[in-house]
Specification:
The structure holds 2 protein chains of 2 kinds. By secondary structure, chain A is of the alpha/beta class. Helices cover 44% and strands 12% of the residues of chain A. The radius of gyration of chain A is 20 Å and the shape is elongated. Chain B is mainly α. The chains are: A alpha/beta, B mainly alpha.
C-alpha cells in the first residue's frame, strides 16, 4: 500500500480506536474516568460510619501523622512499614468484616496502594476492602 | 556464461537468505509486541494504574491510553507480520519504545519505584537495567528494520 508514513500511522491509530472503544464500554463499570479508584471500591464517610463495628478503619498515612490524630479505633498500616504493621491488622480482621482505608485527602495515592496490597494479602483475595472518599480531610469535615 | 549464471544464482540465494533472516526479525518483534499488547489489553485497569504511577499524565488520559495503546501495539505488530502499513507500524512501535524508555528513566531519576508496564504486570519484578536493556534491544531491531524499509522504498520509487 503506497501511502505516506504519516498516513499509514493514522490508519493504524484509527484501526486501534475501534477495539479500544469497545473495551472502554466493556470495562465501564470496573474503571472510573474521574478517579483512580473504581466506584465500587470507594465509600463515603457516611456509608463507612453506617457499618459500625463491622468496619475496620486503616490509616495509610505515615506514622507521625497517625500519631497526631486518626479515626478512633483505626489501625496504622502504611507501605513503608508494611511487614511490621500488617500482623496487627490481620489480628482484628475476619472474612465478614469491611475494611476502610484512608490517607490524607482525595488526591493521595497511599490508600489506593494499601487497599490494593491488602486484597492480595490473603488467598483467596480479601474482599470488602474500600477506600474512603476524600480521606482524612473528609472525615474531619464530617466530624465538625 | 556458466560462471555468470552460477554467480547470479548464488547472489539470488544470498539475497533470499537475507530476506528470510529479516522476516524472522519481523516475526520476533511482532511476537513480542502482540504478547505485550495482549497482556495489557486483558487488564486495562492495571495498565491505567501503571501509566498513572509515572505521575506524568492526568488520570483520564492514563485511562484513555490504557485502552488505546495495547491495541495500537497489536495492530502495528500485525502490520509487521503481514507487511501491511509496514513503515507506519515500525514508526509507531519505535516511538512507543522511545517514549516508554524515557518515561522509565525519568521515573527512576525522580525516585519513583514503579513497574514499566511494558509487559503488563508480567514484568513487575524486572530490574531497571533489565527493562532498559530489553527496550534498547527491541529499539535497535526496529530502527534497523525501519532503515531497510526506507531504503527499499527509495529504490522502488527510483525505479
Amino acid at each position: 500500500m503506497k501511502s505516506s508514513l504519516v498516513g499509514q500511522a493514522v490508519i493504524l491509530a484509527a484501526l486501534a480506536l475501534l477495539p479500544a472503544a469497545g473495551e472502554a464500554i466493556y470495562f465501564r463499570d470496573k474503571i472510573s474516568w474521574r478517579s483512580a479508584i473504581a466506584p465500587s471500591e470507594m465509600v463515603t464517610v457516611e456509608q463507612a460510619r453506617g457499618w459500625g463495628d463491622t468496619a475496620i478503619w486503616v490509616d495509610a498515612r505515615p506514622e507521625d501523622e497517625f500519631a497526631t490524630d486518626h479515626v478512633p479505633g483505626a489501625i496504622s498500616l502504611n507501605e513503608d512499614q508494611w511487614n511490621e504493621l500488617v500482623p496487627q491488622f490481620l489480628a482484628v480482621w475476619a472474612p465478614g468484616k469491611k475494611t476502610v482505608v484512608y490517607c490524607s485527602s482525595l488526591s493521595c495515592n497511599a490508600s489506593r496502594e494499601v487497599a490494593h496490597r491488602l486484597r492480595k494479602t490473603t488467598e483467596p483475595p480479601m474482599e470488602n476492602v474500600f477506600v474512603l472518599e476524600g480521606g482524612w480531610e473528609a472525615w474531619l469535615k464530617k466530624k465538625r | 556464461m556458466k560462471t555468470a549464471e552460477n554467480l547470479s544464482t548464488i547472489n539470488y540465494q544470498l539475497s533470499t537468505n537475507r530476506r528470510f533472516v529479516w522476516r524472522i526479525v519481523d516475526f520476533a518483534i511482532a511476537g513480542i509486541f502482540i504478547y505485550a499488547g495482549a497482556l495489557k489489553a486483558i487488564d486495562p485497569v492495571q495498565f491505567a494504574s501503571d501509566i498513572d504511577n509515572y505521575k506524568l499524565l492526568p488520570w483520564p488520559v492514563s485511562v484513555a491510553l490504557a485502552f488505546f495503546l495495547p491495541w495500537l501495539e497489536i495492530f502495528c505488530a500485525l502490520g509487521l507480520v503481514f507487511r501491511f502499513l509496514y513503515r507506519g507500524a515500525l514508526s509507531i512501535l519505535s516511538a512507543s519504545i522511545v517514549v516508554f524508555t524515557l518515561a522509565t528513566i525519568a521515573a527512576k531519576l525522580r525516585g519513583l519505584d514503579i513497574t514499566c508496564g511494558c509487559f503488563g504486570h508480567a514484568s513487575q519484578h524486572w530490574s531497571f537495567p533489565s527493562h532498559l536493556a530489553t527496550n534498547l534491544a527491541i529499539l535497535t531491531a526496529l530502527l534497523v528494520l525501519s532503515f531497510k524499509a526506507t531504503s527499499r522504498n527509495r529504490l522502488q520509487n527510483a525505479a
